[in-house]
Design goal:
With 282 residues, the protein is an alpha/beta fold. 32% of the residues lie in helices and 18% in strands. Helix 2 packs across helix 3 and helix 7 crosses helix 8. The N terminus is likely disordered.
């Protein structure tokens, strides 16, 4: 019998053909307004760091077959940091060529991959729906490479931020991990509350580092189980609307899990938890 390890293709994280570009071409699926929940969270949570930065550069890594997400990221970041600039980076040259007509002040497009081909270290790297097609075993290497490209922490800032996660096709459900130069910090669950049956519906959008860990014995499975229980216990609040039910459920969940945000974010259909509480075992 041939082992799985023996039949697995070579790692896709290597540069190919002598090129410095690192990664592999993804499906490139994109949709206008798909990443709105992630963008709004970034502007709220990381906006102050961007404002303080001497050169607040953000990277939309793997923006896909159309440049909508990069265009939208610039607009949303500038509500919090008016000097922000965005560089859209894509591994497929034809997609870069198609995006060039959309360049404007503060927005450019470049060919590249996980090496992040910028002369400076960015304050933000957003990688949405990029690792979905990779193996779980490759995630740590990608994270390490991207975190090494972030602006370092200093006496005034925590350094750059990597936001990596997955959402559905129209952005109703989204889960992402936030990482700093030192590594993973938090996991955020975000949803359109009117479409939610129960919190564990978000399991199908867990990022690659967690999606295969939603099994008994793993922390993320226990978290979603407890979240469903808190959601069920908060059913009487449904008469006041899904938002009030969510807020009550998260408040109860926070008694047992290290929730790092507060009601202002919960009202947006979000909850953020310390990475260490959900990190895979082993």
């Amino acid at each position: 019998m041939t082992s799985r390890a023996a039949t697995r293709p070579p790692s896709r994280l290597r540069p190919s053909g002598g090129s410095a570009v690192v990664g592999t071409v993804t499906r490139g699926t994109t949709h206008p307004n798909r990443l709105r929940r992630m963008d709004r969270w970034i502007a709220a949570v990381h906006g102050a760091e961007l404002r303080r930065a001497a050169d607040p550069v953000a990277v939309d890594l793997g923006y896909g077959a159309a440049p909508w997400t990069a265009v939208e990221l610039l607009r949303r970041l500038r509500t919090a940091a008016p000097r922000a600039r965005v560089v859209g980076v894509e591994i497929e040259p034809a997609r870069v060529a198609a995006a060039l007509p959309y360049e404007r002040e503060g927005l450019v497009f470049r060919h590249g991959g996980f090496e992040v081909p910028l002369p400076q270290r960015p304050q933000l790297i957003r990688a949405a729906n990029v690792l979905r097609q990779y193996d779980e075993s490759e995630v740590a290497g990608v994270w390490g490479r991207l975190c090494a490209r972030l602006a370092p922490a200093d006496g005034h800032t925590r350094g750059g931020l990597l936001v990596e996660g997955t959402c559905d096709e129209i952005g109703r459900r989204h889960v992402w991990v936030a990482l700093g130069p030192e590594g993973p910090r938090t996991v955020t669950f975000a949803t359109r509350l009117g479409s939610l049956h129960r919190p564990s519906d978000l399991a199908e959008r867990l990022p690659k580092a967690l999606i295969h860990r939603n099994v008994p014995g793993e922390p993320v499975h226990a978290f979603l189980r407890d979240f469903d229980r808190a959601w069920a216990a908060a059913a009487p609040y449904a008469s006041y609307g899904a938002r009030q039910r969510w807020i009550r459920a998260v408040r109860d969940l926070a008694a047992d899990w290290p929730v790092t945000d507060g009601p202002a974010r919960w009202r947006q259909g979000e909850v953020t938890v310390a990475w260490g509480a959900l990190a895979p075992r082993g």
